[in-house]
Design goal:
Structural class: mainly alpha
Shape: elongated
Helix content: 55-70%
Strand content: under 5%
Number of helices: 4
Distance between the termini: 41 Å
Radius of gyration: 23 Å
Number of strands: 0
Order of helices and strands: HHHH
């Protein structure tokens, strides 16, 4: 965007409003300007997930990869009974982690 095509806007906020803007923009990982622009455009401005949630999602991702490897071995006809048991245990872990996420 060129400078000629931009408009500057001056607004006055109460200290509480300014603090709220700062807090909400920071929670979303955005600058105040980017936060306001996204609100104006109707874009999503959800807060970033907490580090605990990120860690749980990462763990679920790794477990999912292991389950996919087991599924590939089953589809290739080289899986053993232990693989199926391991897959079920991994699915139990995923359900438990998802349950923990909903409890937060």
């Amino acid at each position: 965007m060129s400078i000629k095509n931009t408009h500057h806007l001056h607004i006055e906020l109460t200290p509480e409003q300014y603090q709220l803007l700062n807090t909400q923009a920071k929670q979303c990982g955005l600058t105040k300007r980017a936060y306001i622009v996204r609100l104006l455009e109707g874009s999503s401005v959800r807060p970033r997930p907490a580090s605990e949630i990120k860690a749980l999602r990462t763990e679920i991702h790794y477990i999912g990869n292991n389950i996919n490897q087991i599924a590939r071995s089953v589809n290739a006809g080289i899986a053993k009974a232990e693989d199926a048991k391991r897959g079920l245990c991994l699915l139990d872990q995923v359900y438990e982690l998802m349950y923990q996420m909903t409890r937060k």
